[in-house]
Amino acid sequence: MRLRLYFVCLFMSGIGMLYAADPKDHDIAPSVLPHTTRAMRTAGFWLTRHADPQKIILSASEIVTFNKHIQDDQHLTKDIFALTQDFKTDTLVSDFDKITNDFIQKDLYTRSGVRDSGNYLDKAKLNMNAPGLVLGVAPRYALVVHYADVRFLPMDEPLFESPGDVDFDQVQNSTLDVGTAVAVVHVSADKKWYYIFAALSQGWIQADRVALGDAKTIKDFSQDESLVVAVVAKADIFLNTQMTQQHDAVRMGTRLPLVKDEGERLRVRVPVFDADNKLLIVDGFVRPREFHAGYLPYTAQNIMTQAFVMLDRPYGWGGMYGEQDCSAFLDEVFSTVGIVLPRDSKDQSLAGKIFTEFKPEQKNEERIKAFENAIGGQTILPMKGHIMLYLGSFEGRLYAIHSVWAYRVHLGDKDIPKVINKVAVSDLSLGEGSAKGSLLKRLTKIISIQ
Hints:
- The structure is a single chain.
- By secondary structure, this protein is of the alpha+beta class.
- The chain has helices at residues 11-19, 43-48, 60-73, 83-86, 90-104, 119-127, 215-222, 300-309, 326-335, 345-348, 364-369, 439-442, and strands at 27-28, 140-144, 148-151, 172-176, 181-187, 193-197, 202-206, 210-213, 227-230, 234-238, 246-251, 255-261, 266-273, 279-286, 291-293, 353-357, 379-383, 386-394, 397-411, 414-427, 445-448.
- The protein contains twelve helices and 21 strands.
- The protein has a seven-stranded mixed beta sheet. Strands 7-6-5-2-8 form a five-stranded antiparallel beta sheet. Strands 14-13-12-9-15 form a five-stranded antiparallel beta sheet, with no helix packed on it.
- A hairpin with a 7-residue loop joins strand 10 and strand 11.
- Residues 1-24 have low confidence and may be disordered.
């Protein structure tokens, strides 16, 4: 088993990192993007134009089969409780070397704008504690107690590709919400970091964000079928019945075991630390308007509604600042119906039923024609480094909703990035005339999640 690096998408192949440091080299996109209107920024606009928005796309049992196919056949997600059968720690030594070597070859800058002299990376490599890897040791298991960043290196210090580029920390891999089960396979030299595997990602997380416990308790917690699912962008968890003592907040799609519906509040199970910093599962409380009892039915209506709950939410590279990049946006939306998509856009492009595959030389007319039978609310649109949710067509134009950093426009003798930095609705001509080309021109596939 080799380490898989989950490099998440930055739209237009690094615009943010190339241009964010110098305001003269980029511009701010309009709030309503070209060829879109106020009305298009609502789920209702697209549902009205959908042939059958309440049709069940996949039943609950079919979703279980879909998820198992992605995990067991395609190996795009992971059953962490099966690691005792296939985990080999000896591969981590070479994987750690590859990660640090990849970072060493880059010109990276610290938060203060100083070029990294190698000191941070040298310290990080030592802290990886490769000599401390013990072959054949079974993983330990834990639950995330507080929102956790997943890092490529066991270090807090961010590293950027250009001075002042504070939104694109190259050490950031992904994030995990409260209640996520993880397998702990290694500990850093300073004991402050765990190397973990989760269902969708792997990397280093701070040890004080997770509580170790016995495997059965953690498996039962994560597989409890009596559950509630977060259906808002950020949902609070409280530890008192008055709901004034916040434990943390979780993102859309996060599930927690349900104890009881108490009307004005839902009583749920929440992982916390006990007095010895071990796992303790206690009752917590959440607002009924922020959670749904069980998964939502998988319909275009529910997917579009959840997607538009996220409209205008900030873009977050690798989950930075608790936000979402393009692939995390799709994962959060589809998680509300129980579908477990892979973490990164490249792997998401392998999930589902391929409707069409495009060749780079295909003309726009052919590409538009390929959408004739594409259905909004169940169709995803991948390209190199980015992925979107298809909404439908209107007056000959094709539209999608996506978490996006920027697009390019050609002005004079160069391309200028227009920074969006949020979840937005756009038509697929966005970027037309630039060197990269339009979204439509850059599409590689049309995929139906079914």
